[in-house]
Design a protein that fits this description.
Shape of chain B: elongated
Distance between the termini of chain B: 17 Å
Low-confidence stretches of chain B: none
Largest sheet of chain B: 2 strands, antiparallel
Strand content of chain B: under 5%
Number of strands of chain B: 4
Radius of gyration of chain A: 30 Å
Oligomer: heterodimer
Strand order of the largest sheet of chain B: 1-2
Number of helices of chain A: 14
Order of helices and strands of chain B: HEEHHHEHHHEHHHH
Number of helices of chain B: 11
Low-confidence stretches of chain A: 168-172
Distance between the termini of chain A: 69 Å
Shape of chain A: elongated
Helix content of chain B: 55-70%
Number of strands of chain A: 0
Mean pLDDT of chain B: 81
Largest interface: A-B, 59 and 69 residues
Number of domains of chain B: 2
Chain lengths: 332, 307
């Protein structure tokens, strides 16, 4: 059959069919091998043939009533679109960008929320500390019994000291590490972050409550004359861990304020904008919790000296701070 | 009145399967339903769980852990395997985990742009918050704190119900990340019926249709006929031959009566008649369409009055 005998839409198809077939094979190759492993010529053809196919599709929708052709072009362009607009990032690049740029930058951008987060925890601790000295009964109000581990206002100096300087650790190492991660503080961090969406209040209350517990716990030991010892015991992992909770709280507050005060955006759009930084804060908090778990699982039992505990705990805290303050600065 | 206005708006809004790429030509990517996504999720959980069991057996053989801490370590390891698996798989395979690959579904950006790392991380972290963490809570806190377990259970149920009521079947994480999940379309190019050589039979003149005879049908009827003609190329079933001939005969008679085609069509020429009619009708309709007269179906003449 000669070309002249064909109707317009059939001629249209005949002229372009070879290009579409080639695009089809290229799309298959890209899906199987990945765009990175294709030749330069193949990748170039994929992009230009994809744009031709979109043009063909929009013309075919106007001039052709051939259902087979329309269906094929729809599917082919869609597949090619998915290949062409695939994320082009290497995994190493993703990690490098997170640690070297986006995480510290997100931390610096959300400094007001971080201040609020640390303030919640700090005020809570202060209140707990003062309340304990007013009446030790507050201790029972703040600390759930399973968390205290038998350390209450009735405990003696010796028993408290034995916990702090655990001479015979039988639950150390990996087991302690694992049990710890699913313990209290990780759960608090997750809730503090997640519940921030509900108008900030749960995040603030939870962080404050966590501070109260900390304050009361510390006050108990100060009362027994173990102040510096418990500070050392807490700092080796607590500097990292409590900061992680405050950072999670900051992320939650960010989401909550985005919902409460969306400004010129719709609430969903504002939540999405705030989410960009909040997710990074959550990732940083998760990383810090992981490090804290290592410190608690291994470091606390291995390092029995009080000064060493101070040095390790606050030293690592200083490293975090250096990362947040100096990481990802653009050189001019 | 307002209700009617709303209904009209609902009718007029673009199809939910439509995605607008940066090129500005809307593409059709059918939304994946809740069932198939649940299937993919189950597959992924199975895969990660098998990996977990393998690691646990290795740990047990090396005698690193004591049996008391086994469950806690298992929960931790499951977490450490699961979270990177989803994010990295979707990053490397362009929005597909292994389960999604098996079931041929895929994550796409809701606004038609490329998938970003941020979106993939966010949607998979929200999966933790939506399902896995409350599920761990339900499993870990049993009778001692029924309130917390109940709360976690209600939370899971709400999160599972959200996609059922969403138009694009998005999870909470999908909404926050600006993504949704689609079926991968399969491109299959069938032959063009209009450019097939005519069936040649001796001593028969060609069928000729006049333009008024082609004004009765629209695109829908044309494409139905196209489907019917394509089905003729497949092998008939054992008893289907007679049935099929009867259907063809009925259709030919109906078309003849409708368009006022006077000459009777002898049985051996019926398919040839349909093919010729398809070609003439399509040429006519495509011609009209070029002149701005788009005929969706045979009621095209009445539609003008409604508008």
């Amino acid at each position: 059959m000669k070309d002249q005998d064909l109707m317009r839409s059939a001629r249209f198809r005949k002229e372009r069919e070879t290009d579409w077939r080639r695009l089809e094979t290229l799309v298959l190759a890209a899906e199987q091998r990945g765009l990175q492993h294709m030749d330069f010529a193949e990748a170039r053809d994929l992009a230009s043939l994809y744009r031709q196919a979109t043009t063909s599709l929009s013309i075919a929708r106007e001039i052709s009533l051939d259902k087979a052709l329309l269906g094929y072009l729809e599917a082919l362009t869609a597949r090619a679109y998915l290949c062409v607009y695939a994320p082009q990032e290497r995994l190493g690049g993703v990690f490098h960008r997170f640690f070297a740029q986006s995480a510290p930058q997100a931390m610096r951008r959300s400094w007001p929320f971080l201040v609020l987060g640390f303030l919640c925890m700090g005020l809570g601790a202060l209140a707990g500390y003062l309340l304990y000295f007013e009446s030790p009964d507050w201790y029972y109000v703040f600390l759930p019994t399973e968390l205290a581990g038998g350390r209450g206002p009735d405990a003696t100096y010796e028993s408290l000291r034995a916990v702090i300087y655990d001479e015979d650790p039988n639950s150390s190492g990996l087991g302690a590490f694992a049990t710890y991660l699913f313990s209290h503080n990780t759960r608090i961090a997750i809730f503090v972050f997640g519940l921030g969406v509900f108008a900030c209040a749960p995040a603030i209350i939870l962080t404050f409550y966590n501070g109260l517990m900390l304050g009361a716990f510390y006050a108990l030991h100060v009362d027994r004359g173990l102040g510096p010892d418990i500070a050392g015991w807490l700092s080796i992992h607590g500097v990292t861990e409590l900061s992680a909770i405050c950072i999670a709280c900051a992320g939650g507050l960010k989401l909550g304020t985005a919902l409460l005060f969306p400004g010129d955006f719709s609430r969903v759009a504002s939540l999405r904008r705030a989410g960009r930084d909040a997710v990074k804060l959550a990732l940083v908090a998760a990383l810090m919790l992981l490090v804290a778990a290592f410190l608690e699982g291994f470091g606390r039992q291995l390092v029995q000296d009080m000064y060493m505990r101070f040095i390790i705990g606050w030293g690592i805290g200083a490293l975090w701070l250096i990362w947040f303050v100096f990481g990802g600065r653009v050189q001019r | 009145m307002i209700l009617r206005l709303k209904k009209k708006n609902r009718k007029n809004r673009p199809s939910r399967d439509e995605l607008m790429p940066p090129e500005g030509v809307p593409l059709t990517l059918p939304i994946a339903g809740v069932g198939v996504r649940f299937g993919a999720q189950i597959t992924d959980i199975t895969i990660t769980f098998v990996a977990l069991v393998a690691v646990m057996i290795l740990l047990a053989m090396l005698n690193i852990t004591s049996p008391q801490t086994m469950i806690a370590i298992g929960a931790l390891l499951f977490f450490l395997i699961r979270v990177p698996y989803y994010v990295l798989a979707e990053l490397v395979w362009n929005g597909q985990t292994l389960g999604k690959r098996i079931l041929k579904i895929k994550v796409v950006s809701h606004d038609g742009g490329p998938l970003t790392t941020h979106a993939l991380v966010l949607r998979n972290m929200m999966k933790e918050a939506e399902v896995f963490l409350p599920a761990t809570l339900v499993l870990m806190l049993d009778a001692s704190s029924p309130l917390a377990s109940l709360g976690a259970l209600v939370w899971i149920l709400i999160c599972l119900l959200i996609p059922v009521f969403d138009r694009y079947r998005r999870r909470l994480g999908d909404m926050m990340a600006g993504t949704h999940v689609i079926h991968l379309p399969v491109p299959v190019l069938l032959k063009d019926l209009a450019s097939e050589p005519r069936m040649i039979s001796l001593n028969r003149k060609e069928f000729v249709f006049l333009s008024y005879q082609l004004d009765h049908y629209g695109a829908f009827e044309l494409q139905t006929l196209e489907g019917l003609l394509r089905a003729q190329n497949t092998q008939p079933t054992s008893d289907g031959g007679a049935q099929r001939n009867k259907t063809i005969a009925a259709i030919v008679e109906k078309i003849r009566k409708k368009i006022g085609y006077a000459n009777p069509v002898p049985p051996p020429d019926r398919l040839r008649f349909l093919q010729a009619f398809y070609k003439a009708q399509r040429e006519h309709l495509e011609q009209r369409q070029l002149f701005g007269d788009r005929r969706e179906n045979k009621h095209y003449a009445n539609n003008g009055e409604d508008a």
